[in-house]
Amino acid sequence: MTDNLDAFVENLQAQIFEEARESLGELGFERWRNPLYAGKMADPDAYARVTGPCGDTMEMFLRLDNGRVGTASFFTDGCASSTVCGSLAAEMAVGKDPDEIGDITGEAILAKLGKFPKEDEHCAFLAAETINEAVHNYMMQQVKK
Question: d(Cα 96, Cα 98) in Å, to the nearest integer?
């Protein structure tokens, strides 16, 4: 009986992974399974927290070195698609100066993914909005100094 259950679970897992790969594309599937840049950062130079219309909340953390993003991370309480998009937004920020972060748009994240479920595209826009808000907050702090 245990062998039958194990085989059922393995087959079910394989089916779930295949459907996720088909839906998210290869890059999206890999970031869902192993998100890069995930986690909260202590004492970031730039930070934002945005809740999207779907109810998912995303946080972005940036640390700048010599005027460029040296380290980036994200945290989300959202779905797999929010995790995928947060991971890509953080990756796209590394090495950029604050002005270049504006190039990180929902469209740019979706283009990098290549394939993504239409009903989840709003997650890319949430990630882009959050990272741009973090830079905006950073720039406002610099003006006050």
Answer: 7
